[in-house]
Hints:
Elements: E1 11-12, E2 19-25, E3 31-37, E4 45-49, E5 67-70, E6 76-80, E7 92-96, E8 105-108, E9 111-114, E10 118-122, E11 132-138, E12 147-150, E13 153-156, E14 160-164, E15 176-180
Antiparallel strand pairs: 1-4, 2-3, 4-5, 6-7, 8-9, 10-11, 11-15, 12-13, 14-15
Amino acid sequence: xxxxxxxxxxxxxxxxxxxxxxxxxxxxxxxxxxxxxxxxxxxxxxxxxxxxxxxxxxxxxxxxxxxxxxxxxxxxxxxxxxxxxxxxxxxxxxxxxxxxxxxxxxxxxxxxxxxxxxxxxxxxxxxxxxxxxxxxxxxxxxxxxxxxxxxxxxxxxxxxxxxxxxxxxxxxxxxxxxxxxxxxxxxxx
Length: 189
């Protein structure tokens, strides 16, 4: 069960026919919900956003320009550390959801691409280990950048799940890592 303060802005994508949830402005500022087929995103908690960034996105040609917050069970968003945003090795963390470019993600095949055009990447120095850091890196097609879903889990090409570090779970700046898939809420997105 998701905490009630998020019910109006976060919806789970479930069921046999996958769909992304898109929030669109309606007259008088009311929000409406529209669905579109998106089989690769079954089970994830996504919130469509318009990034509050003054420059054009850096995503490669052909990559979707529909941007999402990727929201975890605790209502925090997947976030690139803005101190290093745009650099290879930029740390991925959790942060209170906003519409900044650090939290704008789109999907291209098996890649999760941020507004700066870099891919969500497992650090290859630790790939396959519990606690493997997750970072941004220039998109290159390697397995470290391959992602799929299993229910509400984001699963890396090595079969490990995207995981919030449970030592700090719920805090802004909480590191995101890879961990063996389990039923803990730290792995629900």
